[in-house]
Amino acid sequence: MVSPAPLPPAEVDSGARLVLAEHLLACESAVASARAVVEWLARRHGAPAACVGPAEGASASTCLASEGLTGAQQAALARAWDAHGSPLAASRTRPGARWLAADAVEGAAMPGGFLAVPLGRSGASAAALLVVGLPGPAVPEDVAWVAACAGPLLARQLAGDARAPRRPEPDRLLRRVINAVSDPVLLTDTEGTLLFANARAEALLVAGPDSSPGRTRAVELNQRLFRETLTQGGTSVHRREVPLVDPLEGMDLLFELITTPVLAPDGPSVVVSVLRNLTDLGRATQALGESYRQLRATEREARSERHRLDRVLDSVADPIILTDPTGGMVMMNDPAERLFAWPHEEGPASEGPAGEAMLRRVRSNDALFASFLANLLGPENAGVSRWKSQLTLDDPATGAPVPMEAMANKVQGDGGELTGIVTVFHDRTEVLERARLLERVKEVSSELEARVQSATAELAEQNEKLRRQAIQLEQASAAKSQFLANMSHEFRTPLNAILGYTNMLLQGVSGEMTPPQRRNLTRIDSNGRHLLEVINEILDITRIEAGRMPLHLSDFGIPELLQEVMAEMDPIIARSKLSVDTRLDEGLPGVWSDRQKVKQIVLNLLSNALKFTHEGGVQVMAEYQNATGTVAISVKDTGIGIDVSNQEKIFEDFQQVDSSPTRAYGGTGLGLSICRRLAEMIGGRVSLQSAPGQGSTFTLHFPRRARRT
Amino acid sequence: MTNTPEKQKPLVLVVDDYQDAREMYAEYLEFSGFRVAEAKNGQEALDKAFELTPDVILMDLSLPVMDGWEATRRLKGDERTKGIPVVALTGHALKGHSEDANEAGCDAYVTKPCLPDALVDQVKKMIARREAASRR
């Protein structure tokens, strides 16, 4: 055992020697004492040292202890000690230290030479030889002291050793081998008294005489513990644990003690103990236990987290599925279970055809899901991180189709590797229903639109029909006008001849006629003229309707015009035997209008009055209304009068109050209609005041100054 | 008038496709002291006019073969006949016949039915106007 640092020299002489002396006192064998001495010297002088003495149970001497010498040097020294005549052998009998040159002993050459100090009782031959490698012949004080102190002890011990039964001691090689073992190896008697310890065991269980008090106490504690453990287990092969203390560090160590009783061939039974350091193992076990505990705690925590997560996920209405990178289900929430999990928990109800159907739907859902996931699985989809699709699943319970939108997201670990896929489903039933309703609304709206369009089209068609009818009407009207014009011409041609010949006869072109002949001819003439008037009236209406009645405006006076009318009507007035008079306002202004038309209107009104009046008279009045700038010419009669309900009707074409086949008054029914149209042409109107039996008053109102249209 | 020598009596060409009317006017014109020639249509009227060079022509407008307007236009376009007064006679009162007749070169316009005495007055007026013009 080499102490790590040499003690300071001041204390050496007193302290170190005391320690060695104590140690030597404790030494029970010559070998131990020799060892203590050699080690102490070697440490003190930094020089190799050895102690050679008689070997136990052997005739030849051996190197009891050495430091810094090779095996060959030790052997050479032992041989030289035993050989008679050698410089060393001489030391057996001659006391005092002797300095030998480096090459004095063959095979044990020491650089610089060495001191040979015989050890033994004074006066007796040396029992052992102390060899110290030193450069000069001077004998250090330490060496002298050691020789004086240890010599007698060693001699006594060597003598004692020879008397006592020899204890087995492994040979040196074996001892080296055992020293090399990394585990502490000990040889003890059955009570635990240490016989031999290898270096490792020494570190634990042996304290040198110069050890610190701490170390010594630790070693003592270790020895006690070791001994207790050893004796507890008996001497059979045994394994048990023994707690020891690291004397250097003060740490607790745990060893497994394996003891094997060995019966030495020539001595008492001894026990071989091997200690195996379990401290690390124990620590490891402890750490493992701790880790395991932590793991359990973590697991519990994780489980509770998981339960919490499960509850959270279950509370989500949308199905959620977590799958591993191969597509295997890892976890799903309740809504997902209802769609994708086997209905095992349904109990007996799941048996039978209903259960079969459910199972089939679940399988079909699973298959759909798997094919959906395939879009994210596999190395060819490494670049895709999420996938969205529409799936139509079946409700396992009812078989109703459930339109779903599935969104799968890859879950990546810290290194970017795929650790799982989370798929969230969203029920699209409501969305689709809303879309369907919207579609329906659109349909209805477009139907409505179509109806509106068709109604519009119908309307357009009817408008077109009306337009065509209007055109046809116009054409018919034109045709009617043309027909009336042609008819008028066809009437006029023979009428021209009739009137012409009648006129000629009345003029006496064919000679004088008798009065009855003349009277008859006059009637022919009169009827011919009447016929001509009717034709003219029809022609007038036609001309007005066709817009072929031109307006000829001129300045004229009302009195002259009425005078002319009276003159023309004179024959008829004379024949009617009615009193006809005119009453004109004084200061009637001259007018600017179509004279011919005003005249024709007054003629018509007057002839009408004469026609429907049988007694009384007809009065023609004219006045100027300054406020409105209009002239009013009225024809008032005392005739049959007209009922209010018929007052408007009489102004229409071909309409008469009495149009029955038995009517009392003839006529085309065009007179008043022509009057009204002509009045309109000059910007005027014809009004009527009448009651049945009260007579009638027709009035022509027209502006004094016509506006050219 | 009745005493006027036969060759000095003015010659009136009466053009009308309606025989009764034509003969009626012819009879009354002769009765009133005129010589009368007759034509049934426009073409005949042209032939007679070139042959006889009448003093007045009474031209019905609606005629077969060639109508009165065309015949009048041709008469007025010819040196030999352009000085002869033409009095248009028509039973058509619908269209603006008077304007058309004036445009064709008619000197006067009479609407049927036209009593014989009224027509004779018109013819006399034409001859008087022509004589007055030739005297100037």
Q: How many runs of DSSP E, i.e. beta strands of chain B?
A: 5
Average pLDDT figure of chain A: 81
How much of the residues of chain A is beta strand, in percent? 15-25%
**CA distance, first residue to last residue of chain B:** 24 Å
- Globally, the shape of chain B reads globular
C-alpha termini separation of chain A: 154 Å
**How many β-strands of chain A, per DSSP?**
22
Could you tell me the radius of gyration of chain A in angstroms? 80 Å
- SSE order of chain B in H/E notation? EHEHEHEHEH
Assembly state: heterodimer
Low-confidence stretches of chain A: 1-11
Largest interface, with Cβ-Cβ < 8 Å? A-B, 25 and 21 residues
Structural class of chain B: alpha/beta
Helix content of chain A: 40-55%
Please outline the major beta sheet of chain B.
5 strands, parallel
Helix content of chain B: 40-55%
Could you tell me the radius of gyration of chain B in angstroms?
14 Å
**Global morphology of chain A:** rod-shaped
Describe the model.
The complex is a heterodimer of chains A (709) and B (136). Chain A has 709 residues and is α+β, with helices and mostly antiparallel strands. Chain A is 46% helix and 21% strand. Chain A is built from 15 helices and 22 strands. Chain A has helices at residues 9-26, 30-45, 71-82, 141-163, 172-180, 199-205, 213-232, 279-315, 334-340, 352-373, 429-506, 515-545, 558-576, 595-611, 671-681; strands at residues 49-54, 61-67, 98-100, 114-119, 128-133, 185-189, 194-197, 238-245, 252-263, 269-277, 320-323, 329-332, 386-394, 401-412, 418-427, 554-556, 579-584, 591-593, 617-625, 630-636, 685-690, 696-703. In chain A, the strands form 5 sheets. A 5-stranded antiparallel sheet of chain A has the order 2-1-5-4-3. In chain A, strands 7-6-10-9-8 form a 5-stranded antiparallel sheet, sandwiched between helices. Chain A has a 5-stranded antiparallel sheet with strand order 12-11-15-14-13. In chain A, strand 21 and strand 22 form a beta hairpin. The longest helix of chain A is centred in the middle third of the chain and has 78 residues, at 429-506. Chain A is rod-shaped. In chain B, 45% of the residues lie in helices and 18% in strands. Chain B has a 5-stranded parallel sheet with strand order 2-1-3-4-5, sandwiched between helices. The radius of gyration of chain B is 14 Å and the shape is globular. The two termini of chain B are 24 Å apart. The mean pLDDT of chain B is 83. Chains A and B meet through helix 11 and helix 12 of A and helix 1 of B.
